[in-house]
Amino acid sequence: MSSQEIPEENLPAAQDADEHAPGTVAVADETNPFADPGLPPHEHRIQDIDERAAKRSERTVAMLFTLSMLATAGFIASYVTIPSDKSIYVFPIGHISAMNFALGLTLGVALFSIGAGAVHWARTLMSDVEIIDERHPIAAEPEVKAKVLADFKQGAKESALGRRKLIRNTMFGALALFPLSGVVLLRDLGPLPGTKLRHTLWSKGKLLVNMNTNEPLRPSDVAVGSLTFAKPEGLEEHDEDFQKEIAKAALMIVRLQPENIKDKQELEWSHEGIVAYSKICTHVGCPISLYEQQTHHVLCPCHQSTFDLSDGARVIFGPAGHALPQLRIGVNDEGYLEALGDFEEPVGPAFWERG
Questions:
Q1: Reduced to 3 states, what is the DSSP secondary structure of residue 42?
Q2: Helix, strand counts (H, E) of the chain
Q3: Cβ pair 107, 181 in contact under 8 A
Q4: Tens-place pLDDT, residues 295-350
Q5: Could you tell me if 327 and 260 are in contact, meaning their C-beta atoms sit under 8 angstroms apart?
Q6: Looking at the whole model, is its pTM more than 0.85?
Q7: How far is CA 135 from CA 3, 24, 139, 144, 235, in A?
Q8: How many angstroms separate the Cα of 288 from the Cα of each of 143, 181, 300?
């Protein structure tokens, strides 16, 4: 019900002024069923009458803001110094990541301290006098705007922000330092990869090892029309960095008739029709595993990018942006297939640093 729909005699402005006095309780009757019960007598806080208590509250608020700053510094230090693979035992949770525990604890303390400091400041030092604000039309009148501005100035004055410099400075320090937590998280965008994306484990003299048998490959092991997957010599599945390295070094080996190879460089880098290409699709990095013997095409199962292995593994269909990199291979003195160097170009999808 709006104020326009209430009988004039029941509006707060029309009621006896004494009904609004602190401690006054109006009694409902037939003519005034919704009587204003009034406000209880205002009780002053200890900080309102004792400056020493106000100073203690001020120091408490400043201590909380300072604790927030220290916790933020601890967050940054934890992120930089604690190894990501270190774990600790925390009762009753059990073994958890030391970095995650430290980050969560320090970030929680930093946020809690700012909030607790602001609440304690408002409850003990800011004005707590009850103010009645009568209903008014929705459209703001010039007088209302002036009143809002005056209230704001009064609130700023009552906060004592200018007089209590210790609170002001520590609050600004806590609020200014806390966002650094988010800035430090940008470290997850790095460290910069440098040249890691341009090189793999392949190097001159490394044997081509069959992924299924874990044995070095001889030319006789690769039949015409077959597809074999290989990895570099020395890379084992139990190695800690196996997944990271095989994602760049995975190789597929196909044997073609030399006369069916159209690309001159492909023929020069092959051995008796055996060609070795990166298994990593140049679209989004999926492993290529489908081979058509009759057409010499390989197909990526993710988005159907198709490459012609008889013509430099160029793209003939699909979203891939460039051909598969070829690995130059030969045979060592013992008759095993070996790499004659690393890939001449980065494997997998393109990246912004690639020239």
A1: coil
A2: 8, 13
A3: yes
A4: 999 999 999 999 999 999 999 999 998 999 999 999 999 999 999 999 999 999 98
A5: no
A6: no
A7: 7, 21, 12, 12, 78
A8: 74, 41, 5
